[in-house]
User: Fold this.
Amino acid sequence: NAIAWGCGGTGRHAWLRTKCRKAWGFDSLHPYQIKMKHLFLLILLSSFFLESDEGDIVETKIVNLQDFSIDKPSYCKERASEDSLIWSQDFNQNYLSPDFWNFATSNGFHNGISYISGWGNGELQYYTKPSRKEAESNTTKNLFIEGGYLKIQPIYKKNTSRIRDDESAYNFTSARIDTKNLKSFSYPAKISICFKVPKGIGFWPAFWLMPVEEIQWPNGGEIDIMENRGRISNIASSALHFGEKWNKKSTLVGEALIPREVRFQDKFHSISLIWRENSMEFYLDNAAKPYFKIDSNNKEFKKYKYPFNRDYYMILNVAVGGKYDDFWVDYDSFCIDEECSNKTIPDNHRFLIDWIEYESL
Assistant:
């Protein structure tokens, strides 16, 4: 039964959840149903570990701050002082700066030998970029700025459409932006994001870092500051990927489990990475203690070298489906057009980013 303690999920490339959820009945979870006896077993523990068949190691900690006793729309941490800020994004203008942000396109990437569709994870979305008529705002139907928030919304079309004549047709479009070759990030520093994730099975929002160097994954390490499964309402994950190649690697995962009444899908929360040489700590909202802490003395770095003392660029995206949540997708959870006219509250089906901060330590 030890396998059950990892049911919250593992990292971006793990599949152990399937076995675990079936063992404990979690494979039947629906956003409107929760098997309370199973959740109760999780709440009994404040910290627990699991090593998966793929070598992924998961640590889940319950975070129950005093702040959560007050019902409010945002539990994000206090903003950094101007003196400590190196760079920030507040999204107060309806314009995405091309000085800092690139748009990724297509449904995959070239690994130097062949094209890898689905971004290597079986993802369903095609990432779009601004058209000529959208160039003035540098936004798209899938990514725009409104009311002081950056909003990323996947759109589902019942009939597949072809974005480019030389590519396949897709039902889903979404957006992925990054700061590659425009803005880099390194230690010692604190990186924070205030966000609200979309609600519904199949959403996979993420805020993460990849090496500036052109280096084969996962040699340079991948830092997932925040990712969330649309099917799970009160867990957000952070993960570190590293190793020698895709089938010879390790993944360390930290999960923040919070009370249902302040679930990630209903409120704004912040996650902060405190990044020092040879160590990383991840914090939820205004918590004084990290829910995930890793340093170069971890036994996994005896297998593979510690790669995180280098420069990285930043990525924001919303994927659809894929192996992160066992390929589950509820098509009715997604907007069907730019206005999200099929939803009473469109923002519940969008990844909302209030602000991002990069500050010195």
Q: What stands out?
A: The two ends are 42 Å apart (CA to CA). Residues 16-24 form the longest helix (9 residues).
